[in-house]
Design a protein that fits this description.
Structural class: alpha/beta
Order of helices and strands: HEHEHEHEHEHHEEHEHEHEHEH
Strand content: 5-15%
Strand order of the largest sheet: 3-2-1-4-5
Shape: elongated
Amino acid sequence: MLLRLLCGGLLSAAVSLSFVSAHADKPQRIVSMSVCGDQYVLGMVKPERIAALSEDAHNPQISLQYEKAQGIATTRGSAEEILLLKPDLVIANRWRGAKTVEILRQSGIEILMLSLPVTFEEIEAETRLVGKAVGEKAKAEMLLNRLRQTTRPRDEKETGPRAAYFMPGGYSAGQNTFVETVLHAAGYRNLASDLGLQGWSSLSLEQLVLEAPDVLVMSFFNRSGYSLSTRLREHSAMKKLMENTPTIDVPEKYWACGGWFLFEAIDYLKRQKV
């Protein structure tokens, strides 16, 4: 009897140690500070391992996986608020919350900084980096497979419809942007790139009208209703251009930033192809 009890106890201890060992390399209290980080975390990690998401996570307009985010706490991103959550991993980015990140680092919390991936190669590298950090390499590969299914080889000589990407304030996306990567993957040429624009650049309404694109690709005009930045869409010249040009309004949640989830934007543009 004593031997049986000892064996049972040793077996139970071995199982417990095995469980701890299996989870030792996986952070159990993850905090995401941006909507981009939210999409990575929600795509790879079970809800019980997420301590908090960004304040945009529940917004159906900008968060692709807002339904998955329901019931998970959110944070406004202050250092004090995040420290109280006692995270073992915080996923931040390089364009917001620098002071918060500095305080968290000084407190000994592990930080994973997201970049601004543009090409599919960069997106793959970033997705794998997140997968490794959260202990979900296999899930990272599954997400990348969904993206690969929507891409196709880029032919520099292709002559697809010339698309003009336009957003509030008169901005467009030229070379070295994930928007151009998406447009090419969906079979479009990028007007802003043809004009020699680099990165996120201004594209005047006058120039847009003169260039007479084959298709208008619009996004982010409905985020906060009518405003000074969105009134350009109501301009008489813009209205006339839209009457005579096929216009595709891409839901902003499909490409709020560059990541594995861009397959949604690619699929959407392909379905609307002119």
